[in-house]
């Protein structure tokens, strides 16, 4: 009976501080507190102490729950020594373990209210071993037979009442030493439809049993694992199970040394009794039930005869080169209300329209709890069920590849949390940290800075950690066909000790060596896989790693955000270009925003600068600033990354409710014209980048003039295929800027399509606050008109007749048709049905030059609504006719 939701701050379970490190929770009447029926006897209370979000827990030895016995009033008998924790209905599921020849000292006791103890007896099976009239009895028993042994304590009082309790002891057989039949790799090995070999790497352990659905979670000598021990510090426990139900999911655990229950660290599916109940059937259909009352803690799943996933597109998919990447960082939990892979698949068209060519999924391997950023990992080979079944993840990856979109997964191998079986296998309960003999973890973090410590610190100098990391990488590259990894906090990949104030940024030889080894292993498996580091260390170290072929995160959030807010003293973002760092390879993944920073638009609206009527704190102006930033972000070479919904100006604070709390996806933003124009502007910039190598090629010569003390900024690009110049005003007042054109003659402005005849390379332009231009030496078809305007009216002056796409399309009940003319002209703009019949004339008069917009509300000339369907709108001038289609839906 579990009353609270893991990972939430439930006030009913918040303990009251009494001072001096003492805390109290008043439970009162247990049946009422836990919602347990009055007719059911409560034998034990189970506890786990945790922080509000569940990231820190206090448990029993080996990470188990803490149990406290409850007794009914009246006559009670109990085993005082040894005591036995029997929370799983049957004693065979949690016996006490001894070896042949061991002696067991037994002490039993009885207590009663209002009567006297008449007799206290100890039985072995049906044989009476001892009897007394006292309230305690001591006895020593020596084991001469292996297997299960049952002892019973029986008490009778003077009123004739009897109480009985039992003690179950397993006497282990002699362990068989043998070589595993196939592989020496730990994990689950399928031999056939009904046969599986399980292998657990666990040196220094005395014995291991397998328990699970196949033996009803009973401890049975048949399931004592064999031992392969070439050396004392490299023990592999293994067992081959036959007669497994073919194709049926079987839950199981390893029972280590009689008191630790762990799931297989290499399982591809985990059942978690604390969290699975909150995963709905539409997210994960027909999820197997957790084996309540039979075991505790996470359990692993095996399943023979699994049908291999049928990859449709991934075999033919070719990854885009690193310098051309435009990565979309995505947290499934907050990207969609349904937070499942299937719905993300349905939303891929949206990302495809934006133009990105890679998705970076925040951690999707099994993490603690359900609602999480994923940086508290526990199992590395099992996708977290909160996002759906594993084959849905494979379908997502396959569908991304069908659209030319790479999938990069965020991998957390700096640390893992206490639920991990690797941590629980060797755990120092008194100090609440990994034990000194843990093969994979350091006892404490090499960072003495508490802000740089998370979970349990992997020891990347250990050969066991090296082997584990390689298995993780190989698995995701081959089983899920991911295109690469973003590694979290790679500054932690050494054992170099860093002092309390340090973030470990100094050049670290051992860390470089470890990362190069991992990169080599990744590329040995997949030569074109991406390997991205969240490193943020000394430039000399990052240069070496970048030149080796790794990509590194380039956090430019602060400088870009200062620029978008109009505070210019620290707005020089030239460090976002790899060449500014002296790198020879374009391997800097620059970003204006990631999951870790305060949202740029939130700060624009809260803290934006202003001058007169120009105020960045106004939403349309703040969105315009994001277009300006995009022009100075997507246009210089090197891979780029955007955080989800940055393309819509997401403005919910990262600390809304709390930093890690769920955030609303706000898909309704796409109904806001100003936000939609930001989306389309970034789309146009990404398109420009993808279609013209000037903006991506390592051969492009880049000159940056990003003066941090004024609003004037310029990027000058020189390439054999095309030269380009980007100029912009990040200030809050009108200013002038010299574009420093490469040469005189005709240049073209991308967004307007205008041509500019440059008379002198020293010419200057006037730019309003927030205005920018992109000039190229080759004319490029301009994107949709009006994208750079703050309101719905067009601001740029066209040089030719143009009839633009209407918006919205399809529409109901109204749409806007936009057009432009270079000189005053009589025009005729009308709507026709699909048979060519006139529906309504919208304009029939002389119109001045410039940009114009006309609304149509789906009515005919008499004002009556027309039917749903396809319509044609036609713009006719003296010499020209232009046509476009639109769809009315009712």
Percent helix, as a range, is 10-25%
Number of helices: 13
Looking across the biggest beta sheet, what order are the strands in? 24-25-26-31-32-33-34-37
Number of strands: 52
Distance between the termini: 51 Å
Tertiary shape: elongated
The assembly state of the depicted protein chains is: single chain
Radius of gyration: 34 Å
Share in β-strands: 25-35%
Helix/strand class: alpha+beta
The low-confidence parts are 791-799
Can you give the mean pLDDT?
A: 93
Largest sheet: 8 strands, parallel, barrel
Structure description:
- The protein has about 900 residues and is α+β, with helices and mostly antiparallel strands.
- Helices cover about 15% and strands about 30% of the residues.
- The strands form 15 sheets. Strands 24-25-26-31-32-33-34-37 form an eight-stranded parallel beta barrel. Strands 38-39-40-45-42-43 form a six-stranded antiparallel sheet, with no helix packed on it.
- Helix 9 links the parallel strand 32 (about 530-535) and strand 33 (about 550-555).
- It is elongated and about 115 Å long.
- The two termini are about 50 Å apart.
- Mean pLDDT is about 95; it is low at about 790-800.
């Amino acid at each position: 009976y579990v009353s609270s939701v893991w990972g939430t701050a439930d006030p009913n379970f918040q303990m009251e501080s009494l001072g001096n490190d003492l805390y109290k929770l008043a439970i009162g009447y247990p049946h009422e507190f836990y919602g347990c029926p009055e007719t059911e006897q409560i034998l034990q209370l189970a506890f786990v102490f945790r922080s509000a979000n569940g990231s820190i827990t206090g448990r029993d030895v080996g990470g188990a729950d803490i149990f406290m016995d409850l007794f009914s009033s009246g006559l009670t008998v109990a085993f005082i020594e040894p005591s036995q924790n029997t929370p799983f209905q049957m004693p065979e599921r949690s016996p006490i373990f001894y070896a042949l020849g061991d002696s067991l000292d037994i002490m039993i006791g009885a207590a009663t209210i209002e009567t006297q103890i008449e007799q206290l007896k100890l039985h072995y099976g049906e044989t009476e071993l001892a009897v007394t009239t006292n309230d305690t009895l001591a006895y020593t028993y020596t084991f001469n037979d292996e297997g299960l042994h049952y002892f019973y304590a029986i008490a009778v009082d003077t009123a004739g009442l009897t109480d009985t309790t039992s003690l179950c002891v397993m006497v282990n057989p002699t362990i068989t030493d043998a070589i595993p039949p196939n592989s020496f790799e730990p994990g689950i090995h399928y031999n056939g439809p009904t046969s599986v070999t399980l292998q657990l790497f666990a040196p220094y352990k005395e014995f291991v049993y397998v328990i699970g659905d196949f033996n009803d979670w009973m401890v049975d000598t048949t399931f004592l694992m064999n031992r392969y021990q070439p050396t004392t510090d490299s023990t592999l426990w293994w067992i081959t199970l036959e007669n497994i139900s073919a194709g049926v999911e079987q839950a199981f655990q390893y029972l280590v040394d009689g008191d630790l229950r762990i799931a297989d660290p290499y399982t591809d599916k985990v059942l978690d009794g604390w969290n699975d109940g909150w995963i709905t059937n539409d997210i994960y259909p027909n999820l197997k039930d957790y084996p309540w009352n039979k075991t505790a803690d996470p359990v692993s799943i095996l399943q023979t005869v699994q049908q291999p996933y049928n990859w449709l597109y991934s075999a033919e998919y070719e990854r885009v080169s690193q310098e051309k990447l435009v990565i979309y960082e995505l947290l499934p939990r907050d990207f969609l209300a349904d937070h499942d892979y299937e719905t993300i698949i349905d939303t891929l068209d949206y990302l495809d329209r934006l133009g990105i060519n890679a998705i970076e999924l925040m951690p999707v391997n099994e993490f603690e709890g359900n609602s999480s950023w994923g940086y508290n990992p526990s199992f590395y080979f099992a996708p977290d069920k909160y996002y759906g079944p594993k084959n849905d993840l494979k379908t997502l990856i396959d569908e991304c590849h069908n659209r030319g979109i790479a999938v990069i997964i965020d991998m957390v191998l700096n640390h893992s949390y206490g639920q991990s079986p690797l941590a629980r296998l060797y755990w120092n309960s008194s100090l609440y940290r990994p034990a000194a003999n843990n093969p994979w973890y350091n006892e404490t973090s090499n960072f003495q800075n508490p802000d740089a410590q998370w979970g349990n610190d992997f020891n990347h100098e250990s050969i066991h950690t090296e082997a584990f990391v390689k298995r993780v990488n190989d698995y995701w590259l081959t089983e899920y066909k991911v295109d690469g990894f973003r590694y979290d906090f790679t500054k932690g990949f050494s054992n170099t000790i860093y002092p309390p104030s340090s973030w470990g940024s100094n050049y670290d030889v051992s860390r470089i060596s470890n990362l190069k080894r991992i990169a080599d292993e990744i590329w040995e498996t997949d030569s074109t896989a991406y390997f991205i580091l969240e490193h943020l260390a000394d430039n000399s170290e990052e240069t070496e790693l970048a030149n080796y072929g790794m990509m590194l995160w380039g956090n430019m959030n602060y400088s870009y955000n200062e620029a978008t807010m109009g505070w210019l003293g620290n707005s020089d973002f030239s460090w976002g270009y790899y060449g500014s760092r002296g790198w020879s390879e374009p391997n800097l993944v620059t970003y204006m925003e990631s999951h870790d920073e305060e949202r740029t638009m939130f700060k624009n609206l809260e803290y934006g600068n202003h001058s007169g009527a120009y105020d960045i704190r106004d939403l349309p102006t703040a969105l315009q600033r994001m277009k300006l930033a995009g022009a100075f972000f997507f246009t210089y070479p090197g891979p780029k990354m955007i955080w989800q919904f940055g393309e819509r100006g997401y403005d919910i604070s990262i600390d809304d409710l709390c930093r890690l709390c769920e955030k609303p996806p706000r898909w309704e933003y796409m109904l806001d014209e100003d936000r939609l124009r930001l989306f389309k502007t970034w789309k146009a910039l990404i398109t420009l980048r993808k279609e013209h190598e000037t903006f991506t090629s390592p051969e492009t010569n880049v000159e940056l003039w990003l003066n941090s003390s004024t609003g004037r900024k310029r990027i000058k690009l020189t390439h054999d295929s095309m030269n380009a110049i980007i100029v912009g005003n990040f200030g809050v007042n009108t200013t002038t800027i010299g574009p420093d054109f490469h040469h005189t003659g005709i240049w073209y402005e991308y967004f307007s399509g205008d041509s500019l005849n440059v008379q002198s390379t020293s010419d200057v332009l006037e730019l309003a606050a927030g205005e920018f231009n992109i000039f190229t030496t080759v004319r490029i078809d301009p994107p949709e008109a009006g994208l750079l305007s703050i309101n719905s009216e067009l601001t740029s002056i066209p040089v030719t007749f143009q009839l633009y796409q209407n918006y919205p399309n399809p529409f109901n009940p109204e749409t806007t048709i936009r057009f432009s003319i270079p000189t005053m002209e009589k025009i005729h703009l009308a709507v026709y049905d699909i048979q060519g019949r006139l529906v309504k004339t919208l304009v029939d008069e002389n119109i001045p030059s410039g940009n114009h917009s006309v609304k149509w509300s789906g009515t005919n000339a008499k004002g009556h609504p027309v039917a749903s369907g396809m319509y044609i709108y036609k713009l006719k001038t003296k010499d020209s006719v232009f046509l476009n289609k639109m769809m009315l839906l009712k």
